[in-house]
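Two proteins follow. First one:
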Amino acid sequence: MEENISAPETQKSKLDSSRLFQQIFLCCSITGTLLLGFALGITLHFSISTFQTQLDDMLKTTALSLADSAMVREAYHQGYCTDEMIHYFDTLVDTADNMDVLTLSDCNLIRLYHVNHALIGEEFVGGDQGDALAGKSYFSDAIGTLGLQHRFLTPVRGTDGSILGFITVSATMTCINSLKKNIFSTYFWIALVLFLALGIISGIISLMVRRMLLGFTPQGLANTYLTQSEMLDSLDEGVVFVDPKGKVQLVNQAAENILGQKRSKLEGAPLDAILRTREETTLLILHDWSHFIALQPEEIDSERGVIMEELRTRDNASWRSTMKMLQALGKGTKYEHRNLIGYLDGLKGFQHKELEDFYNTWYRPDYQAVVIVGDIDVDAVENKLKTLMSDIPAPAADAAQKEVITVPDNEEPIVSIYTDPEMQGSRVQVFVKRPAVPEQYNNLVYGEMLDVVQAYMTTMENARLQEISMQPDAPFLGAGMNSGSIGVIPTLEATTFVAMTQDGKLTQGFEALYTEMEKVRRHGFTQGEFERAQNDLMRRAERSYTNRNDRRNAEFVQTYLDNFQQNRPMPDAKTEWQLDSMLIKALNVEAVNAFAQQAIYPNNQVIVITAPEKEGVENPTTEEILAIRDKVAAAEIEAYEDNTVKEPLIPEGTTLEGSPVKKTAQNAEYGTTEWTLANGVKVIVKPTAYKADEVRMSALAKGGLSILSDEEFYMGEMMPAFNSMSGVGKFSATDLKKQLSGKSASVQPSVENYASAMNGVCSPKDLETMFQLLYLNFTQPRFDENDYNTLMKMLRAQLENVKSNPDYLMEDKFIDVAYGNNPRRQMVSTEIIDKFSFEALPAIYKKLYPDANSFVFKFVGNVDLETLKPLVEKYIGSIPTSKKPMTFADDKCDPVKGEVTEDFTASMQQPKVSVRYMFSGEMPYTLKNKAALSFLTQALNSRYLVSIREEKGGTYGVQVSGSTEYIPSETYNMTISFDTNEEMADELREIVMKEIEEIAANGPKSEDIEKNREFMLKSWKNSLEQNASWMNYLNSKYGSGLDYLADYEEVLKTLTDADVQAMAKKVLSDGNLVKVIMRPAKEEAK
């Protein structure tokens, strides 16, 4: 509610008072209208673009940083997230504004992590993961467990370059779209109010002048002012007057009530600061979203091109196969005939009124809830909410009700077989449907008991399936099992088994999978399996309770949402711990086996098969699948034998020589203690209290793949994946997992181009177990040829189909062009892995992890120095050392110089053009330069959002990212990528360059810089309460030498527009630009 008042010029004395009154009125009204319209338009545009840019930046930055972290790779290598990882991810979700969902999913689409812990182990929902599994990072909108989401997907690669899975970081589309459109709606209504106020005020001004000319006294003028105030106070709409500097000069009573502050506090304050308080803005958005979205026709139409490009980008083999799966599960209902997001024809042709009618029918109070969690005055916020929402009408008694769609039973199995030329692997899924548990049971002990029973069953069965997949000549590459909700179909639950197989071996994989299903149904689980699962579940519950004071807002929000949506309970931490621990201990293996018999039965089965469509590969028919099922059902199946015997990781009687601490130093600024052992090994310890049940470990050394020969390079890159599959010491990966049941400790080697690392995490109570694993990884790595052959089989299965995926072809071409066909910078291929040698692995491992004194060991977390010190001396002190520590080599892998363009075509099912640019060059490795590059990428993201997405409607989004390196030399690169259609590709490419040139010539928009500064400062402050962040800052201090604690905040605060402009100039003037454009083959282009 804003008005800029400009006084009219002095009128000629010959004009009579009536003429003067009219001209003054018109002058004020027209001038005010123009200024007001311009100001509102600029503010609206900035608000929407800034919101989307910051959201996309947050989603993308979070996903990319996670995908590159050793902890995430560790989760994929071991096939599950430890309790420490789960808590870290929970914290991450809560510390990022507007991030609703984080998922880690493997190549079988099984979630290793979900913010809703009940969904861990279930299948990923959305169907937009195909490009991520093909190696691409991108934004997508898809329906997940929390509804339609805007998310950033990125692959997680093993150090060999193979795809381990993918990460999604999401915000719900309902919330995003509501925020965007309600920002517009808010400004629309504000404009109406202001225009009304403008007319009133113009009349008052002209009346005052006319009265002055008629000889009004000062008292008369005062009376006129009082009349004006009375008129304004009589309005129901809030009116605020501001001066040219944006400071409030006058408010009426309604504005006081709406803004929740006294007039004395409002007058003189900046209007922007008043309106943009997060609490007030959020409540206003919720209010408008609930009932007052404008749905302007021109705004709806402007989004059509964007959404059609989104649909074009999303339409890949994975998405198409997911639609087939949902249609099979929903057979006999609307789900059988519908696509989750619609079709291009529908997007092109829907009428505005259809959208308006849908909104008016379903967006109403009885289907809505408001959840607010944070450092707030509960009573005050509740009162504001009640006042603000009071004008939303209740639905009519005969208002439409949501349709409850019940999926019918099926006596005979439903079989769905879908093949696609772009499919990246063969997969079989078996669903055993059942009706969802009635909501009234969810809030009872019965509902919690069902969750615990299903957790037992999935934990034990997934351990079995992992064990099978690790056997020589395993019938499938990987498999998983889950029990619970389907997600998209709320009335349906299912027990789900899934297996990935080699192409052409789906029949063997299905027979093995169905045999395992029957084995569980007939024989159940053993007491030993149950006890290991019980240890793991108890440890998870205990960890959750121990960290109860570290829970973030998002965890509370999810609890309340689950209560609203599913009638889930909302206990306090102590009650939840008492109930869960009681149920975990009270249940026995017989109860779990009884549930398994009910959850796995012959009726209501849906069998879904997806496979590549290519020559030389025969996929099974429906008749063959049913015949295999009948064969297994009629066969004798032996029960599972559990021969596990608990043993110490390091045999009793083993002598460890150790090495004492020789020197101790303190760093008061970082709060660290530095120990130097007698053998020269350096250890840094940072005790914290951020998480009561977490200690993190990092051992980092310069060297990595750079010290290997070209022949060894890709075997070295694959090494951590092999280590994860082979176990350590005398224990295979499967046996090690059994030995560690009930413990929370893990260590995983990792390697990068110029660094080798060992990373670990544990509970303080399992600290010695982590040290034992660390010692074994250095001294007794395990090499088993059967495990090696299993990994090779998995890699080949992944790589056999990648060249049918256009996104892989784009990535492959880009790396080749950007690095001049360098043999050490290639996408892993079957040709590369065919040259691998099992016999070479031990020597390569020894090169990558040669000795203790090449590494700096760091510990961050809830650790006591007196407890830690003897463990350091015993275990790290016993790792061999050498006279000459490892260091990196310059292996000459810089990007190409000059400008290089590669324009090529590829065959694809859904035609699109993919564009990627990379700028590179030399640059001093400083915090200021790193920040300037980051600010530049965010400024470009903001500009492209407007110029390419909103104004041209040519793409769903442009992604800009930058990175800096200090090894082997100090360099930077900045990449820009997007997908679009053939007609607009070259025009958008020109805009990409023009926006960089505009910043280089005239500087960035100050508002873009300030918004990014605010976001980065907040992220920085939040990071200082996270163990993982402290580990990163210590790695920087003892690696590159950058001192984040001393310098980073000041760099963020003092970085100027000129610094960002200078960075843009440098990027252009360095002249190193790689352009790669992939277009559809001519017969496919549309």
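Second one, unrelated to the first:
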Amino acid sequence: MYVTDGGLVLSPTDLVGHLECPHLTTLNREVAEGRRARPRADDPGADVVRRRGDEHEAAILAEMSAAHRVVEIPRGTGPADAEDRTLAAMKDGADRIFQATFFDGRWRGHADFLIRNDDRSSELGPWSYDIADTKLARHVKAAALLQMAVYAQRLEQLQGVPPQTLTVILGDRQQVAVPYVDVAAYARHAMRQYGQWLADPLPTYPLRVSHCAICPWKDQCAEQWHTDDDLVLVPFLRRDQRDSLRAAGITTVDQLAAATPAELDTVTRVGGSSRRKLATQARLQVGARSQQLPPYELVTPIEARRGLALLPAPDDGDLFLDLEGDPFFGDHGLEYLWGVSDVHDGFVSWWAHDPQAERRAFEHVVDHLMAAWQARPGMHVYHYAPYEPSRLKGLSQRYGTRVDEVDALLRGERLVDLYAVVKQGLLVGTESYSIKALERFYSPDGRAGAAVKDAGSSIVEYERWLADHDQQILDDIEAYNRDDCISTRQLRDWLEDRRAEAVEAGHAVPRPALGDGQDDYLKERDPDLVALEERLLAGVPADPDSRTPDQRARALLAGLLEWHRREARAEWWEYFRLRWLSSAELVDDVSPLGGLSDPQLLRTELRSGVWRYSMPVQDCRIRVGERVDHAEQEGRSSIVVGLDLERGHVDLKRSLANEHPHPDGVLKVGPIPSKVQETAICRVGSWIADHGFDADGPFRGVRDLLSGASPRLGDGVRLRLDGESGSDALRRVAPALDGALPVQGPPGAGKTYSGSHAVIELLRAGKTVGITALSHRVITNLLDAVMAADAVGVGGGVVRAVQKADDGNGSRHPSVLVTNSNDQVEAAIATGAVNLVAGTGWLFARPDIHVDVLVVDEAGQFSLANTVAAGAAAQSVILLGDPRQLPQPAKGIHPDGAGLSALDHVLGEHDTVPPERGLFLDTTWRMHPDVCAPVSELSYDSLLVPRSGMENQRVGGSDELAGAGVRWVPVAHAGCSVRSDAEVAVVSDLVASLTGRTWTAADGSARVLGPADILVVAPYNAQVGQLLGVLDGRARVGTVDKFQGQEAPVVIVSLTTSSAADAPRGVDFVANRNRLNVAVSRARSLAVLVGSPALLSAPVRSLDQVQGVNTLCRLVEYATGRVAAG
């Protein structure tokens, strides 16, 4: 940002900074206008990164110059002249343009490269240009995409068409191309809002955001916080809590510390226990201002396995672990230094400068920990914060090594997080609970003279070493790491003193149970599986880029062999994490249920009772019919027979025995055994290891799926005829299939109709068919559709069906045999009594289940591993689904490619299935063209179109809600997380306005809109509960997950969250491309988005977040008439 005679000149970097922190714009503008001095630049790390970036750019330029005609634009001639030279090079058709300059008098930017695109013409001629930038990072950052999208605005003006792609050339030379349409709307909105803000700037204040860590103004802002005694100085104080306190007149730390109970009670939007805890924290901080050492208080009463009760008995074999990691290295970052010290401060370390060395270092560390545990069964490994166990888990699964050892360390509870001990057990009068802040108590001068002071400077110094290879840099980093390990030991000792203090004060502080020896937790890998993995990987290069297609498929299959074990471990790790959360913490978690209270006996069933428990409105992943374990009650469980998350109650069937106390929280039981699936995958893998992917023989469908082969059809059968619908093509080619056929069915495209009729055609051709999916509900839905098609004569009574399902989960069709016996299903197949078999993946993974064709429904949510396991029962597989709707619920970390769903594996980086790989059902029978258009553009490469007649679907009236399409109703609010009363009021008014209007259907018929015709969707159950209460039956209300597969003339979406900072699961849950796609595409005529305008300008970090917020911005453009070309 700088000032010329024409006013402010802006750069994309200014825009990125403004999205992160408007106060940054205020400060930079004051510098540009001469009202403030620029902060002193003293960042050697930034200089290193800048130099390495220049070197990377120069290397890419040299490579391009060797293969293409490159025109370089000189930078010293002024921006207007440089843009003229850029345009001249574009008109001349240069292959590459280096340092292309864009300047419209207001925005100035320099793209590293313009890349000529001969597949798209423009006003320049039969070519156009796309944008590419070089970045040192090993993964795509949102800021880089936004920067290029700003350039693209001007490039579109110069060449008459927008670019197709924005390409980031990463530090490892990988090129990642992102469709411009995935960023464009977000960039347009951000630029427009930024311009409006600059024209009429609002007062700003330096709030704490993630950008503070790298901001040149951070010292000045910190000084202002202390001058103002601002509440931002209170640890763990959220922004919405700060806003609520300030609204109540409590604006400083001192005022919070002095607040009376009555004054605190006026802050109703902050929970009572949180108010008291924050006030105590503030009081301790104020007390620290007049003391040499900050005061602290013990959190009492001390609960088992919380706070100081997490400390095991000290042991001479205890170890202290600390890692140094660089998040900018490679696709997954790099843990470049692993340090371990012992109780005598003996220190050992392992360095890693590349992924192969990282794997070796990881293995050495795990072996070191396991050997210490074997030698001293009472030892533990101490660390500070969850980073270390997270990396141990992630690396064990990514590299497929030491998985059992890490699992044993976790289940044996050898790892002790001292941060959890501090956070749960103490209140300390410091502005931070970092280990550096706590060192004031036990080692105030321990780091005097250290060259590396904190984790951030460790990363900077390591980046500097990557450029300079100065051994002293590594020595300084290692000294810092050793200091961290020793500090962890000293902190453990200090906490032991606090525990003794609590005991002396009369508090019971139980130690955690010691547990069993490591042999009770350690399970060796199956030697047969290890041998199979070695056979599959024989001759496969370690470098993925060096592999042939066959080798890539073999490596992928090898990665699937232990998919279920990795998933199960992740579930067990999560299970044990949840078991010891407090009831309040269970409420805040998205998986379990917490806060159960006021049990009421509804009825008795034999020796069990069904009890209804009240609970706070919350989100969870528990479903009716599931058995759940009681939190903090070993061996106790119940069955969920009723659950109303929106109204806040759950019905549990449990023992009537008096000695069993009522639970205050429940969680899912451990994972379901999956041995049958693991064995099925090994069966496929063993055959492929012997015969390869292309040989004649069994498992053709899953072999072709893994290898990426196109669908194999009979002689002369084309996958799709000219002018043929996807649905007709599926019915025609299904009987000729000998392999894998992916079928992508977008919203309203008749996936279930097409699939059911294809099954009928298969049965008529004499094939035996299987139907499977992730849930009984989905299986039964497709099975019932097949039975309906058979009943109306399409199949002529050809179906003889059996379904493996529990009572209540199966089809109710009288002609379907529903059984819970695997043997009965196998016998029915063997005798030819049935030709259609329906069941979960467990059924089809059994070795004695065989069908000709397996149909996998909702294959966008069905893992590739489960598809291979179930597909072992069939010669061919048909995959029905849509990965652009709700994704598969995977939990583990898997080797590249092994963690995808079956259809995600097929689509890769595409939004729609490539025409040579499968069928795309391109006609929606649901959406009006004005609803379909944004859905098609944002999720389906603009290939999805409405059938004729959909344009007739309209809502009556003469106001802004009349007609069809997308509408945007902005509602300004602040501090709302999972509930917004302001949006509830607006939604209520919208429902009232829509109810009773005439709605015209596609066939021209009309009816009055009633409660069944309006869907109201919200992301959180707390908001759903509020909507249910206020709407009182005037509309159908639920989450996106509840309404997938349903439709209505009108859909209203309440986004709920005020801003990205308020989103409890991140902005990528609220503004999520897939979830928005599902929500909007439920609408036949009208989709109304209700939300905070601040969400449209949310700062983003990842590509997924960019695409999500961009989707929201593009929908708003459609709603407000700003429908520029993609």
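SUMMARY FIELD: The longest helix spans residues 471-504. The mean pLDDT is 91.
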